[in-house]
Amino acid sequence: MLESPHLLARHLFKAHKHNANDLLWNSASFSSGGKNGSMVISLEAFQTVTVDSGGIAEVGGGVRLGNLATGIYNQSQRALPHGICPGVGIGGHATHGGYCFLIAPQAVNAISIGIITTFYLQSQPAPDSVINWVYTIPIAGPDVAAAAFSRIQSFALNASIIDDKIGFGVTPSPSSFLINGTYRGDRATFEDKATIHNPHHLTQTQQISPALLRTLPAPSYSSVKSLPWLASLEDLWGSPLLQPLSGYDAHDTFYAKSVLVPEATPLN
Question: What is the C-alpha to C-alpha distance for residues 225 and 191, in angstroms, rounded to an integer?
């Protein structure tokens, strides 16, 4: 934790923030300090990624997710839950959270007081393989869209099928729903049947992909493939994992809002 910049900023009567290439929309650039004369501290030089014998990853505050995933896996065949954009930095991602359906959900969240130059994160063994899957569902009008969303929501709430091995998201457009995700199991289990243990330790047989698609319009596109861990990440992200250590210049402009829906009272 770097404390002296706080004392310096206080001495100079300047506000300051740190830039760790994070995922906070309002603080992810060198231009948004909030006031004239604000001080921005770049953590770009903090690029350490090492994994000890206990699986603890020491990660510099300037590391981007693609380099993080590659470094951890190449050293130890281990992994961390994290977001799906390789250029996002660890700073805001680990201190404030992000979107993830890559491995079993775990909290990657901390309260940030001061400037974090190094994170110590508990990794876990990487899956031998991951099923990356995509279905494009054609949507013909608002009534079809509402019905399809309700059916997808019911699938997500079905505890006899959904567990921590599967994660997915839905991207709507005027003419289709793109449903894509990952499954940490074998392809036959995903496409055909899965063995699930209920709370009474009895074995049930449930279908995963067929259960999702059963009541939806027939997909106009589908893809299901089994990939090694790093190949799964690269396929999911659609771009190379390794990112430049300096001079990163990829940018995007968009407007985003978040809505949380209680599990006990889903949308209807």
Answer: 10
The one-character DSSP state at 102 is S
Q: How far apart are CA 232 and CA 226, in angstroms?
A: 8
DSSP 121-159: EE-EEPPS-EEEEEEEEE--SHHHHHHHHHHHHHHHT-T
CA distances (Å), origin 34, targets 16, 30, 63: 9, 10, 25
183, 166 contact by CB (below 8 A) = yes
The closest alpha carbon to 115, from 43, 183, 176, belongs to: 43
Of 80, 73, 69, nearest in space to 108 by CA: 80
Contact (Cβ atoms closer than 8 angstroms) between residue 38 and residue 15: yes
Q: What is the pLDDT of residues 222-250, one digit of tens each?
A: 999 999 999 999 999 888 999 999 888 88
| Separation between Cα atoms, residue 228 and residue 79, nearest integer Å | 12
Cα–Cα distance, 24 to 1 (Å, whole number)? 20
Amino acid type, 216: L
State the Cα–Cα distance between residues 187 and 214, nearest whole angstrom.
18
Please tell me the pTM assigned to this model. Answer: 0.79
